Amino acid sequence: MDLSVFIPFKRNRKKHWNRVYEKNLPNEVGWYQDYPKMSMKLIAATGVGAAASIIDIGGGASKLPGILLDQGYKRLTVLDISGKSIERSKIQLAEDSNRITWIEADVTKYGFKEKYDVWHDRAVFHFLTAVEDRKGYINSLNQALKLNGHLIIGTFGPDAPPKCSGLSVVRYEPETLHNELGNNFNLAETFFEDHVTPSGVRQKFIFCRFIKRT
Ligand SMILES: C[S@@+](CC[C@H](N)C(=O)[O-])C[C@H]1O[C@@H](n2cnc3c(N)ncnc32)[C@H](O)[C@@H]1O
């Protein structure tokens, strides 16, 4: 009998995501993108140079780090709770994976030692349905993002489905996201994007870029 169903989800979070990446190839998951157009547009909008430190939170097996390396960015870190996703990423990137710092950790609890110029999160924050997890995330964010650093965050928007990967999500408007993050962040720009999953389902995302002012 699988007793894991009786363990609260928070302790199972790692197990859930490892299973997802064990069972699916990177291009089979619902959030797969051949090219992370909006993320790249917003990273370019920060104006940071190739020596900037960029962290991708819950990077999964996304193509973003490889594309950033190709564009000359040199100081890249990927953090994910799932060791399996990191394994998948490393396989995709082959030798280039040695040019990236990998952190296997839960962002809501991790004690960051480095500070970053850019914090990028596509489709992670919206999974934090418990207040204490959002507090933990925002604590980590404030600890790790430099003053005047850029926060790029993509979440399900108001018309998106209520679940992703079988998990409930919180759907945000730019204003509700801003309220959640706190007024030490200035909202610089917002975009809406329709993401079409590999099985053809349309998901409405919002993407915001904030600047940390205090
Ligand atoms: C929907 S996927 C998005 C992956 C990637 N950002 C992309 O756009 O392709 C969510 C990712 O967040 C990771 N994740 C979920 N909760 C996390 C947490 N608390 N801390 C760190 N990573 C987490 C999962 O393992 C998964 O790789």
Outline the secondary-structure elements.
Layout lengths: L8 H15 L13 H10 L6 E5 L6 H7 L4 E6 L2 H11 L6 E5 L11 E7 L8 H14 E12 L6 E2 L2 E2 L5 H8 L3 E12 L5 E11 L2
Parallel strand pairs: 1-2, 1-4, 2-3, 4-5
Antiparallel strand pairs: 5-9, 6-7, 8-9
Helix pairs in contact: 1-4
The protein binds S-adenosylmethionine.
What does this structure look like?
It is a single chain. The protein is an alpha/beta fold and about 210 residues long. It has helices spanning about 10-25, 35-45, 65-70, 85-95, 130-145, 175-180; strands at about 55, 75-80, 100-105, 115-120, 145-155, 165, 165-170, 185-195, 200-210. Helix 4 (about 85-95) links the parallel strand 2 (about 75-80) and strand 3 (about 100-105). Residues about 1-5 have low confidence and may be disordered. Bound molecules: S-adenosylmethionine. The site of S-adenosylmethionine has 20 residues, from helix 1 and strand 2. S-adenosylmethionine (SAM) binds near residues 13 and 85.
Features:
single chain, 214 residues, alpha/beta, two-stranded antiparallel ribbon, 6 helices, 30% helix, globular
Q: Structural class of the helix and strand makeup?
A: alpha/beta
- Mean pLDDT across all residues, rounded? 95
> Which sheet architecture does the biggest sheet show?
7 strands, mixed
**Weakly predicted, low-confidence segments:** 1-7
The best one-word shape is globular
What compounds are bound to the protein? S-adenosylmethionine
Q: What letter string, H or E per element, gives the SSE order?
A: HHEHEHEEHEEEHEE
Helix fraction by DSSP (H/I, runs of at least 4): 25-40%
Strand content is 25-35%
Number of helices: 6
User: How many distinct beta strands?
Assistant: 9
